[in-house]
Amino acid sequence: MTIPAMVLKWQDAWTSLDPEKVAALYAEGATHMSSAVTARMDRADGTLHGPAELRAYAAAVAKVLTSFRADITNVIAEGTDEEGRAAIEYWRVVNGDEAGRKRVAEILEWKQGKLTACRVFHF
């Protein structure tokens, strides 16, 4: 399985739990949709917009997690490091709880080396 550079950057940023690193991935006007956003950020539509909102969300996540792992199991991708899209399937392990791991799928889109859209599906 070949994993695009942007997917590896995404994985590295989110698993670092560093809000600045996460925000730096996203382009101005980028969207991030997740049911976790609905719960954690009180957003009925589950959508965040742009780096500032992603920074705030990542900071909220970092306050409640001691660790986060995204163990990638499958990637379907097209494009280049500068522009492309990928569907990523992974096991989410939070705070070292292997028994409580959850399957997640994310769809990433990027242009000019920045994420423009992310849609997260928790199972």
Q: Would you mind describing this structure in some detail?
A:
It is a single chain. With about 120 residues, the protein is α+β, with helices and mostly antiparallel strands. It has a single domain, classed as Nuclear Transport Factor 2, Chain: A (Roll), CATH 3.10.450. About 35% of the residues lie in helices and about 45% in strands. The chain has four helices and six strands. It has helices at about 5-15, 20-25, 35-40, 50-65; strands at about 25-35, 45-50, 70-80, 85-95, 100-110, 115-120. A six-stranded mixed β-sheet has the order 2-1-6-5-4-3. Helix 1 packs antiparallel against helix 2 and helix 2 (about 20-25) packs antiparallel against helix 4 (about 50-65). The longest helix has 15 residues, at about 50-65. The two termini are about 25 Å apart. The mean pLDDT is about 95.
Q: State the low-pLDDT regions, or none.
A: none
Give the strand order of the largest sheet, numbering strands 1, 2, ... along the chain.
2-1-6-5-4-3
Q: And the CATH topology?
A: Nuclear Transport Factor 2, Chain: A
Question: Would you tell me the overall average pLDDT?
Answer: 96
Mind telling me which CATH architecture this is? Roll
Number of strands: 6
The total number of structural domains is 1
Large-scale geometry: globular
Structural class: alpha+beta
Question: What would CATH call the class?
Answer: Alpha Beta
